[in-house]
Amino acid sequence: MNDLQDLHILVTRPEPQGQELCRQITARGGQAINFPVIAFSPPPDLCAFTSGIAALGDQDWLIFISPQSVHASTAEITRVWPRLPDRVRIAATGAGTAKALRDAGLKVTACPHADWSSEGILAMPEFQSVGGQKIAVLRGQGGRELIDQALAARGARIMTIIAYERVLPRTDVNPVLALLRENRIDVTVCTSFEGARNLKTLLGEAGWPFIRKIPLIVMSERIKSLAQDLGFQTIWVTRNASQAAILERCRKKD
């Protein structure tokens, strides 16, 4: 299948998802430019992180916000809990997070079918009547607190575990600047608002006049609105956060 033939796509997803998306773009005939705009570092409070992991066996639910929340925490989880108690159920905000959990040997009990987001989790029947339940939310420093706040408002006892911190990567932007000047980027993929913001920051005054005019693919209407506030001019929204949906949106020109 060569449905992306000659399309030059700037991929800003963090690793390892970015490399996998680039591989799929190349397999479909496209030209992928791998340019991760988010890097990850250990949690700022390691003691709080390890204390939270030690308390997981007392929870009713563990909610993982992203694949990175899985990658950053499962080594410590399996060290402390070779087997979690059967009463502990696990939820993922999307298919990518669910896959990361299964790959780590953890059983996923709940995952939205279509709306792969915090809103999707909150709409699930499992999280409507949670009064008195103990729920651990594993996420990154500075991430959205919507799940924590909404479930607390519904009466749940929330334990937030910060598993990692997002940082601006140190990267050579000159190859991307050269492509922009040569008009050799057709589409940009950003999977989070922070990614869009970091892209603008990294490219700076030299690259912003170019990148803001190139169609930007994002995962939700919320991110689209925030990216518009940053100044991106043309923004396309995928049907969900899957690789397939991103590739599908790359093919559309509207």
From TrEMBL:
Pfam families reported in the protein's UniProt record: HEM4 (PF02602)
Molecular function as annotated in GO: uroporphyrinogen-III synthase activity
Keyword Lyase: yes
Keyword Chloroplast: no
EC number(s) recorded for this UniProt protein: 4.2.1.75
Similarity remark: Belongs to the uroporphyrinogen-III synthase family.
Name this protein carries in UniProt: Uroporphyrinogen-III synthase
Native organism: Aquicella siphonis
Encoding gene (name): hemD
